[in-house]
Amino acid sequence: MRKVVICQHRLLHYRLALFELLRHTCAERGIDLNLVHGQASRRESAKKDEGVLPWAYKVENRFFEFGPSDILWQPFPTDLRDAELVIIMQENRILSNYPLLLRRLWCRQKLAYWGHGANFQSNNPNGLRERWKRLTLKEVDWWFAYTQTTMQVLEQTGYPGNRITCLNNSIDNEGFQRDLATVSENYLCEKRRDAGLGSDARIGLFCGSLYPEKRIEYMISAADRIYAEVPDFRLVVIGDGPSTSNILAAAESRPWLKYMGAKRSIEKAAYFRLATVLFNPGAVGLHVLDAFCAGIPIATTREARHGPEFAYLKDGQNSIVARGGPETYAQQIIELFSDPHLYARLCLQAKQDASRYSLKNMVEHFVEGIEGCLALRN
Question: pTM of the prediction?
Fold first, then answer.
């Protein structure tokens, strides 16, 4: 079997299903897929977002902290050095990437990047870090791009399009869809009572980490305007983070704002079943797929610093992508509430896009890219 290695500086829990299915699919095609990962940094460990795979190679990362940032060195297992292809994350701070990049000068081993192509949430997109990332962007044999946005970044630099695989980054949609299907009507009624929601309430749901880039104050200001015109509107917030205190303070004077804390699995699915629209005027990422699975539109803004999954959103087709201040955001949601035909169309497209951006499709793209890279002549 042809040996391939994927390196991750830490193993995130939401990637477990991806790597299990990817390894199985690779094996069916004569590819021995190996995963190497280390552990979280001191600061990252507070997130408690790591998972375990018994077949993966776990190594001990070495971290070096510099102010608010850190860099790391990840050892590469000796018995994997004969791999035909090594796939690394495109991160400036991973020092152990650079020897692998240099080895391409004399070694037949192929090297690929898996990443965004750029930091879409950077405070200084023309700064030294981003310039360095662009400088090293073309020094690999293949690219595994998160989304079409990454493909555009790569092609603009002149990287050959026939050596790019667009993965359409995804998570275990099927698992969340099972959770949604498992929620009973009695359980929905229970959660509706817990949140004090009337049977006819129009429910805006925020689900995710609460931090400044999510534009919490903007969301509350917009919700104030919506409630003023739509008295049966309720905003339900599930999640946790540094900005939780802002939500709690706002809820003290707004009985229609319901903070329910962090939720997982079936309980999270129940709130998505109750929701009319997913609110997120700030940075969006993989959670857009939760909205698609639930068959509800997500409402965000053009100006926020989004992750690459923003590419999945099509304004007026499967989502609302507002421009400008909270009043514009609020008005577009009010119009959505008052137009059942538009709402039905957005819900239908969102549901259809859930199957397009599935974990199964991502794995298929990944394996096709691996095969394409292995077929390259040195």
Answer: 0.85
Sequence spans of domains, the chain = 2-170+359-374, 173-356
Amino acid at 118: A
The per-type count for the chain, helices as H runs and strands as E runs, is: 13, 15
Q: Name 96's Cβ contacts closer than 8 Å, sequence gap at least 6.
A: 72, 73, 74, 75, 76
338-367 pLDDT per residue, tens: 999 999 999 999 999 999 999 999 999 999
Question: What is d(CA 317, CA 325) in angstroms, rounded to the nearest whole number?
Answer: 21
96, two tokens: 């152990």
Backbone angles phi, psi at 227, to 5 degrees: -60, -35
E strand or H helix at 191, and its extent? helix 185-194
Distance CA 111, CA 303 (A): 35
Give the model confidence (pLDDT) of 234-281 as tens digits: 999 999 888 999 999 999 999 999 999 988 899 999 999 999 999 999
Judge residue 30's burial from the number of C-beta atoms within 10 Å of its C-beta, 0-12 exposed, 13-18 middle, 19 or more buried: exposed
| CA-based nearest residue to 53, from 93, 26, 13 | 13
* E strand spans, 133-251: 142-145, 164-166, 202-207, 233-238
Class of domain 2-170+359-374: alpha beta
How many residues would you count in the chain? 378
Question: Which residues touch 238 (CB under 8 Å, ≥6 apart)?
Answer: 205, 206, 207, 260, 261, 262, 263, 268, 271
- Of 3.40.50.300, 3.30.470.30, 3.40.50.720, 3.40.50.2000, the CATH number of 173-356 is 3.40.50.2000
- Do 2-170+359-374 and 173-356 have matching folds? yes
DSSP alpha helix (H) spans, 230-282: 244-251, 265-274
